[in-house]
Amino acid sequence: QVRLVESGGGLVQAGGSLRLSCAAYGRTFSGSAMGWFRQAPGKEREFVGTINWSGGITYYADSVKGRFTISRDNTKNTVYLQMNSLKPEDTAAYYCAATNGGSYYYTPRIEGEYDYWGQGTQVTVSS
């Protein structure tokens, strides 16, 4: 059974940092793009960032650019989201997602392009 399991969420003060992890089980995703999305209460899920299969290409939403960094360790089948300078508006459930594959330049930013999803981890930023 293929699973993506997020961890690392929690409560943090504004200006603080958190590092989310997303571990994949059941198959290797070393050839897949991975992405992070988030959903705040009452809002639609939105794109946060994505990383290509090798880790050499990343793309971020404007709202997190310069504060968030995505990385991956294919030997551990894990992708990370380092979040710095957190703001109250970053409060949301964060989800990781994976594609079934793709070219080197494949860095999808749309939910429908991802084939696997985790259950999410909650991040709450207090002011």
Description:
With 127 residues, the chain is mostly beta strands. Helices cover 0% and strands 46% of the residues. The protein has no helices and eleven strands. It has strands spanning 3-7, 10-13, 18-25, 34-39, 46-51, 58-60, 68-73, 78-83, 92-98, 116-117, 121-126. Strands 2, 4, 5, 6, 9, 10 and 11 form a seven-stranded mixed beta sheet that branches. It has a four-stranded antiparallel beta sheet with strand order 1-3-8-7, with no helix packed on it. The protein is globular, with a radius of gyration of 13 Å. It starts with a strand and ends with a strand. The mean pLDDT is 96.
Structure in a nutshell:
The chain is built from no helices and eleven strands. It is mainly β and 127 residues long.
Determine the structural class based on helices, strands and strand pairing: mainly beta
Radius of gyration (Å): 13 Å
For the largest beta-sheet, the strand count, sense and barrel status come to: 7 strands, mixed
Record field, number of beta strands: 11
Helix content: under 10%
What would the average pLDDT be, to the nearest integer? 96
Q: Identify low-pLDDT runs.
A: none
Distance between the termini: 40 Å
The number of helices is: 0
